[in-house]
Specification:
Blueprint lengths: L26 E4 L20 E2 L7 E3 L44 H7 L8 H6 L18 H6 L9 H7 L4 H12 L2 H4 L4 H14 L9 H15 L2 H4 L4 H13 L9 H6 L3 H5 L5 H17 L7 H16 L6 H14 L7 H16 L7 H24 L15 H23 L3 H22 L10 H12 L11
Parallel strand pairs: 1-2
Antiparallel strand pairs: 1-3
């Protein structure tokens, strides 16, 4: 028997609460909205997926959906602390019903209003068609077609995350991470609620600042895809536990959460509250970790696990994210090199597996120079744009300009050549010692060609995009495209 719930309506004399969440996917509308036969809304929220209607009489019916509410009062939008309102669990299928006096609501409008709630399989419910594919109502329509074809080759090192982001309408992190959770069977293994998982991933994606040229959700999706490639390498695939896989993907997706677009020295010299909070030590990484834990708890994704296990997962997640602190690069590299020299890494040991996950995440975080030139070049331009933007702010406010961020004395080519030579190459040479596979050789091949390409562009300003010969690039591309999952032994 189908159970429906009566939507609560606020008394007419109660003013609209003066607050609003910044979450995408929130739903709020006035009691006279077109959904119930009234006039059409005058203004939709600027956020993708959000639905927000003005209220003329300061009386509104508002729904707490996925922890998000947008309400508009005459005083305008104001910030609301998360979790300050109780949840109203509503069967959203009742939104398809309307009072007798209500006018017609087209199926197209209903689909538009409920596009974010595809996990309820609303369109199939209306047509009386049972759901068959669990992904069909979790992901938006753009999951099908070309985006779905791309996900079938998600383990390919040439995976173009920019194209995938366009095909998913800016939802690359949500769609890719959900797909990987599903393909690994983590949803069943950890008994994850798919609605909570979807909500959690959307919260992650929107907490990345889209105005950042580099440290945004697309970068997080790119790191997650790279992390998946490393997790598929034989040494890891044969030894990692389901908990390791869960942590690896979570850490990749959240490793730069809420990045402000400036580096740690900038936060310290401007007396930013985060620098004071974390005592000038791994400021950004601590913030990313704590932000990730906050979203985990808010979404209640792991609330069904024993408290001890949940806290342990949060601590291990923090250990992985803190390893991405570039200022500690030499410490991790020295320890990695020492293990390889002694040949004492034993992946049946939980501590050693965790250390390898840290190194894998570090590699994934800075793997852009190891991608094909087309991708490498785009990422290089984006990260340099972000650097130069920080330098412009420093110059504007008479602060000491960070050398790396000074557009007057630096160029993309010089920055990239130095980064590849002193940061990327030493790390990936050691990684190839640990995992000497087709993927490792492909990455080093791209790194060499890209480095040469930047040198040629620097030496020949009139040919900034000049690179190694087409034959060399084609050879590397064929090698990395030879299999869907670029893994295997040295001779594979």
């Amino acid at each position: 028997m189908e159970v429906c719930y009566q939507l609560p309506v606020l008394p007419l004399d109660r003013p609209v609460p003066k607050h609003v969440l910044s979450r995408r996917g929130a739903i709020s509308f006035s009691s006279s909205s077109s959904l119930f036969g009234g006039p059409a809304p005058r203004q939709l929220s600027k956020r993708r997926g959000a639905i927000s209607y003005d209220s003329e009489d300061q009386t509104a019916l508002y729904i707490r959906m996925l922890g998000d509410v947008r309400v508009r009062s005459q005083l305008g939008f104001e910030q609301e602390r998360r979790g300050s309102h109780p949840y109203l669990y509503v069967d959203f299928r009742i939104l398809h019903s309307r009072p007798e006096s209500a006018g017609p609501v087209s199926a197209r409008n209903v689909r538009r209003l409920l596009s974010f709630q595809r996990y309820l399989n609303s369109s199939q419910f209306l047509r009386g068609i049972p759901a068959s594919d669990p992904l069909s109502y979790i992901l938006d329509d753009d999951y099908t077609g070309q985006a779905k074809l791309m996900l079938e080759k998600v383990g390919n090192w040439n995976f173009d995350i920019f194209l995938f982001d366009r095909l998913t309408n800016g939802n690359s992190l949500v769609n890719l991470t959900f797909h990987l959770f599903n393909s690994y069977g983590l949803i069943e293994l950890f008994q994850l609620d798919m609605v909570k998982l979807r909500r959690f991933l959307v919260m992650i994606q929107e907490d990345y600042r889209s105005q950042n040229p580099y440290h945004n959700a697309v970068h997080a999706a790119d790191v997650t895809q790279a992390m998946y490639c490393y997790l598929q390498e034989p040494k890891l695939a044969q030894t990692l536990t389901s908990c390791d896989l869960l942590l690896g993907l979570l850490a990749a997706a959240t490793h730069d959460l809420d990045h402000p677009g400036v580096n740690q020295p900038f936060l310290i010299k401007t007396d930013h509250y985060l620098a004071a909070l974390y005592k000038n030590s791994s400021v950004l990484e601590n913030h990313h970790w704590k932000s990730a834990v906050g979203l985990l708890r808010e979404s209640a994704l792991l609330s069904h696990l024993p408290t001890e296990d949940r806290l342990s997962l949060e601590e291990r997640l923090g250990s992985l994210i803190l390893a991405t602190d570039i200022s500690r690069q030499n410490d991790y590299l020295s320890e990695f090199r020492s293990h390889l020299d002694k040949e004492d890494l034993c992946l049946t040991n939980g501590g050693h597996r965790h250390f390898i996950l840290q190194m894998a995440l570090k590699c994934a975080d800075i793997c852009n120079p190891c991608r094909p030139w087309k991708l490498c070049q785009q990422w290089s331009e984006k990260v340099t744009e972000e650097f130069f933007h920080q330098g412009d702010i420093e110059r504007k406010h008479n602060l000491e300009v960070t050398p790396l961020c000074d557009r007057q004395s630096n160029s993309i080519a010089n920055i990239q050549i130095g980064f590849m030579s002193y940061v990327v190459e030493p790390l990936f040479l050691e990684w190839s010692r640990f995992s000497d596979t087709r993927l490792s050789q492909t990455m080093l091949g791209h790194l060499s060609l890209n480095k040469q390409g930047w040198k040629e562009g620097r030496d020949k300003p009139d040919a900034t995009n000049s690179r190694a010969s087409e034959e060399q690039r084609t050879s590397v591309a064929k090698d990395s495209n030879s299999r869907v999952l670029p893994q295997g032994s040295k001779g594979s």
